[in-house]
Design brief:
globular, Cyclophilin, single chain
Length: 200
C-alpha cells in the first residue's frame, strides 16, 4: 500500500513538472506553444510563469518585429519578434537577476524564447522569440554592448509558422530611435496576446 501511494505521488509530481514546463500563447494570429527549461533557468522561468499564472499577459501584445529590412543602421543584425506589456506599467513586476547563457547553456537557437532587456538585470515582463539561430544574443555576443547577452529560457515547440507570420507584419511608427528603441520595428497593428496558459 505504501509503495503504491509513493508510486502515485511520483506520477503526480512528474505530471505536474511536465505540465509546468509548457505554455500556450494564444494570439490573434494563432497559437504558439513554448517549452520552458526550469532546471536550467529557474529564476527566469519562475518569473515568466508568474506573469502567466496571474494572467498578466492576457491582452498584452507582440508589438515589435526585427527583420533584415528594418534595422539598416544596426551593425549587428538579428531576427526576432518581441512581446509583453510594452508600456503597461500597472501589470509589471520587479526586474529579476539575469541568467546568462554561459551559466544556463540555453542558446539563442531558432525558436528560442528569451527575456528582453536594456541595462543588465533589467529583464521583467518583455520577451522575444528568435527566428533562426541568433548567437550574437548569447553571452559574449555583440548585439548588446555590455556583452552579457540575453536570458534564453525555453523554445517554441509548436507554432513557428505563427511566429514567422507575426514577423512579416507591416512596421513603422513615428518616434525617436535610440539604442533600445527603433520605431521602424514597431508593428502598425500589434498582434494581441489573448491569453497565456500552462498546458500539458
Amino acid at each position: 500500500m505504501k509503495n503504491t501511494l509513493l508510486a502515485v505521488c511520483f506520477l503526480v509530481a512528474i505530471t505536474f513538472v511536465s505540465f509546468a514546463q509548457k505554455v500556450k500563447i494564444s494570439t490573434t494570429k494563432g497559437n504558439i506553444i513554448v517549452e520552458l527549461y526550469a532546471e536550467k533557468a529557474p529564476l527566469t522561468v519562475a518569473n515568466f510563469l508568474r506573469y502567466v499564472d496571474e494572467k498578466r499577459y492576457d491582452g498584452a501584445k507582440f508589438y515589435r518585429v526585427v527583420r533584415m529590412d528594418n534595422q539598416a543602421t544596426s551593425p549587428v543584425k538579428i531576427e526576432v519578434i518581441q512581446g509583453g506589456l510594452q508600456n503597461d506599467s500597472t501589470k509589471m513586476l520587479p526586474p529579476i537577476p539575469q541568467e546568462t547563457t554561459n551559466k544556463t547553456g540555453i542558446l539563442h537557437v531558432d525558436g528560442a524564447i528569451s527575456m528582453a532587456r536594456g541595462k543588465p538585470e533589467s529583464g521583467a515582463s518583455e520577451f522575444f522569440i528568435c527566428i533562426n539561430a541568433q548567437p550574437e544574443l548569447d553571452f559574449g555576443g555583440k548585439r548588446n554592448p555590455d556583452g552579457q547577452g540575453f536570458a534564453a529560457f525555453g523554445k517554441v515547440i509548436k507554432g513557428m509558422e505563427v511566429v514567422k507570420k507575426i514577423q512579416q507584419g507591416v512596421t513603422g511608427q513615428d518616434g525617436p530611435t535610440n539604442a533600445y528603441s527603433n520605431p521602424m520595428q514597431l508593428l502598425k497593428e500589434p498582434v494581441i496576446i489573448k491569453s497565456a496558459r500552462r498546458v500539458k
